[in-house]
Design a protein that fits this description.
The protein is mainly α. The chain has helices at about 1-10, 20-45, 45-70, 80-105. The chain is elongated. It starts with a helix and ends with a helix. The relative contact order is 0.16.
Length: about 110
């Protein structure tokens, strides 16, 4: 959720011409991450949860790429806290995905 907040704060400073471009794409990708985690958790089966975690990881990869594009366009500085938050979320989501994958393989 912090990554969503940071994404909204960062993208608010982008040029107005990006309102329907990069800004919109980044915000959708950021919101998609916790939304898919929540939806998967509510589905009730480990297999479905694993699927939605995979979708969340895809959205995180999209967002990471979009942050890099924003950095290359000089819309954001390389040392912005959002980059560290991206890494943190990536590590946490990867760990959760691995744990659920093991659980699914074990048949639980």
């Amino acid at each position: 959720m912090l990554l969503v907040k940071l994404t909204y704060l960062v993208s608010a400073s982008f040029p107005r011409t990006e309102q329907f471009g990069l800004t919109s794409q980044m915000r959708r990708a950021a919101v998609s991450i916790p939304s898919n985690i929540a939806e998967g958790a509510a589905r009730g089966t480990s297999r479905e949860y694993l699927y939605f975690l995979s979708v969340a990881r895809g959205s995180l990869s999209e967002l990471d790429t979009q942050f890099e594009i924003a950095r290359m366009l000089n819309f954001i500085e390389s040392k912005h806290p959002a980059f560290q938050q991206l890494d943190t979320v990536s590590r946490l989501l990867t760990g959760l995905h691995r744990a659920m994958h093991k659980k699914v393989k074990a048949g639980r």
